[in-house]
Design a protein that fits this description.
Blueprint (H helix, E strand, L loop, with lengths): L1 H14 L2 H5 L4 H5 L1 E11 L5 E2 L7 E6 L4 E7 L16 H10 E11 L4 E9 L10 E8 L3 E6 L7 E8 L4
Antiparallel strand pairs: 1-2, 1-3, 1-9, 3-4, 4-5, 5-6, 6-7, 7-8, 8-9
Length: 170
């Protein structure tokens, strides 16, 4: 009887959808790897919504197994610099680059129970993020291929809802 139950259990497990099995993976193990930026929607207290990087943003986020991360996000329309030298960007070009892109890196920890990431930012193109309190991300979706989280505390006072997709090998 025991062998029959074991065989039945193994058979059922083998035919579970892969995503159902992936849900049993820890958040820490599940986020490791590279993620492609899909979308971000900002939400203000008054309900106003926006797309800070436009409808077709570009970017990547990488989590390493040892607790390090790196992120780059931009709009698809970051302008090229006329001088072809970033040290000689015009004020208008520099403003557009700052407005339409951000990059930061540092370390992360995971609260499995709360499904939260805590990011300690060590370097950023927006240096105001450095040295402050760790940043919290609340995971709203996590499968083998999709990751979504909310950032409830941004410097501009909006909530960001960000969607990522597992990066395909090149």
């Amino acid at each position: 009887m025991f062998h029959l139950r074991l065989a039945t259990l193994l058979l059922v497990a083998a035919f579970l959808p892969l995503d159902a099995r992936a849900q049993t993976t820890s958040v820490r193990d599940g986020i490791v790897g590279a993620w492609s930026f899909v979308s971000v929607v900002s939400q203000a207290d008054d309900g106003a919504r926006g797309e800070p990087f436009g409808a077709s943003p570009k970017g990547i986020m990488i989590f390493t197994p040892d607790g390090r991360f790196s992120l780059f996000q931009s709009s698809a329309t970051v302008p090229r610099l006329a001088a072809n030298d970033r040290a000689r960007a015009t004020p208008e070009e520099a403003m557009a680059v700052v407005r339409e892109s951000i990059a930061y890196y540092g370390s992360y920890t995971v609260n499995e129970t709360a499904r939260e990431l805590t990011l300690t930012i060590e370097g950023s193109t927006y240096t105001n993020l450095m040295g402050g309190a760790p940043q919290r991300r609340i995971i709203t979706t996590m499968t083998r291929t999709d990751l979504a989280f909310s950032n409830p505390r941004t410097p501009s006072g909006v909530i960001l809802h960000t969607v990522w997709r597992r990066a395909s090998p090149q």
